[in-house]
Write a structure and sequence with these properties.
Elements lengths: L8 H13 L10 E7 L8 H14 L4 E7 L4 H11 L5 E5 L3 H6 L21 H4 L3 E2 L2 E2 L2 E6 L1 E6 H6 L8 H14 L15 H10 L5 E4 L2 E4 L4 H17 L13 H6 L5 E5 L14 E4 L12 E2 L1 E6 L6 H11 L2 H9 L14 H5 L3 E2 L7 H6 L2 H11 L4 H16 L4
Parallel strand pairs: 1-2, 1-3, 12-14
Antiparallel strand pairs: 3-13, 4-5, 6-13, 7-10, 7-11, 8-9
Helix pairs in contact: 1-3, 2-11, 8-9, 15-16
Length: 413
């Protein structure tokens, strides 16, 4: 999730880039490649994958060595800003998908568009993850691995209600109503969804063929008030009314869905696959997961993916950086990453696990420099609260949000 703390960071990065431009040599020397990965890749199972890619790269580039340095999510951006200012950025850096836009907007990464076809499975990259690496129609980031959103549910309650895993949104809606009838405790939610959880709501929008906004040239065109988007928002309202007893105006962290689940007040909840970690000891063995079904039978509902991308910073050696990324995102590497439980960067290698099937359809927010202002302005949250409380009709609320989003995204275009 994009955090408020990044506001203004574009300016800071811009200052750092000016420093990079003033240095003659940029990043590393031609006989060495520096790679920044997160500490996840340092684990016992993950390390051999990094080593294999590095060995493949070094074989193809005699005399060039690779220095893999491991970073932490908490401070890697601060350290990266310092390297940009000092003119010694790494040749490759791992970035979280929601961290990409501000750096792409500031010109911190090199354009890889002409090299795209050289990366394995570039035509079948996960849509929602690949979108995070595109800015002004150019490719700046290569998808690495992803995390999907699924439905985490109480197997005992579904069994008691004689319910099977739903294959369509209509079936899930009917199941929610049945679960609500059988569990009448105050505050119990058949499907816990915070009213203003726009990550869930926008999945309904994309499931019905709508979107938030699309880029035309350098400007952004609002799509939230389109017939397809309104149909998705209407479906969200219908489902929420049938399934959730959460506040219509609360967000997804007050309280956290898994905390409500651990209190025994939830039959199911929608969120990241890791939610199983926090369902409470009492329900650990009574918990399962399934793919959130879309309104069309056999199709999952598009989800907002988490995940990482790999980029080549300015001042670095573009050719060598891109070649290391090619080795690390090869079929061999992606297959190995999948074998240790990660979701690979391509639909062509997805298996049948719940998390992998959930990643087949995905979406991402507009990669606009001003998108953070849309989030900080709570435009989508306010729209959902207006819809669910009946303050405005779906069409009215969607049109108002659409107009505000267009104004914010195109503020300085």
């Amino acid at each position: 999730m994009i955090r408020a703390r990044i506001v203004g960071a574009v300016v800071l990065v811009g200052v750092a880039l000016a420093a990079v431009a003033s240095t003659a040599s940029g990043g590393t020397s031609a006989d060495s490649v520096t790679v920044w990965l997160q500490t996840d890749a340092q684990s016992e199972k993950w390390q051999p994958i990094v080593n294999a890619a590095t060995a493949q790269f070094e074989k193809a580039h005699p005399g060039v060595t690779v220095d893999v340095q491991y970073q932490t999510w908490g401070d890697h951006l601060k350290k990266f800003d310092a390297t940009l200012a000092g003119g010694d950025a790494p040749d490759v850096i791992e970035m979280g998908n929601t961290e990409m836009t501000k750096y792409m907007a500031a010109g911190a990464f090199q354009d890889l568009t002409s090299l795209k076809s050289g990366f394995a499975n570039s035509s079948t990259w996960l849509a929602g993850l690949a979108a995070a690496g595109i800015y002004n129609h150019k490719v700046f980031g290569v998808p690495y691995y992803a995390g999907s959103r699924v439905v985490t549910y109480r197997t005992d309650l579904f069994k008691k209600a004689k319910l099977t895993v739903p294959r369509t949104l209509a079936q899930f809606t009917a199941d929610a109503k049945k679960l609500g009838t059988m569990n009448t405790d105050k505050g119990f939610s058949p499907v816990y969804i915070a009213g203003t959880d726009w990550y869930v709501a926008m999945s309904f929008v994309y499931d019905y063929g709508g979107s938030i906004a699309t880029q035309v040239g350098k400007r952004w065109k609002g799509e939230l008030a389109s017939p397809k988007s309104v149909a998705g928002l209407t479906a969200y309202k219908t489902f929420f009314q049938a399934a959730s007893r959460a506040s219509k105006t609360t967000d997804e962290t007050h309280p956290n869905p898994y905390d409500v689940y651990a209190q025994g007040k939830v039959a199911s909840m929608i969120g990241p696959g890791w939610f199983t970690c926090c369902v409470g000891k009492k329900y650990t063995k009574l918990t399962g997961q399934f793919v959130m079904p879309g309104h069309t039978a056999g199709k999952s509902m598009p989800g907002f993916l988490g995940g990482s991308l790999l980029a080549v910073p300015v001042g670095a050696d573009k050719t060598l950086g891109a070649d290391w990324i090619k080795a690390y995102t090869s079929n061999q590497s992606m297959t190995a990453l999948r074998a240790i439980g990660n979701i690979p960067n391509t639909t062509s290698l997805l298996g049948k696990s719940v998390n992998e099937r959930a990643a087949t359809r995905s979406w991402f927010v507009p990669t606009a420099k001003n998108w953070v202002n849309v989030e900080n302005g709570n435009i989508l949250r306010n729209m959902l609260a207006q819809i669910l409380t009946g303050k405005l009709s779906v069409k009215q609320a969607a049109q108002s949000a659409n107009d505000n989003i267009v104004r914010v995204l195109n503020a300085d275009v």
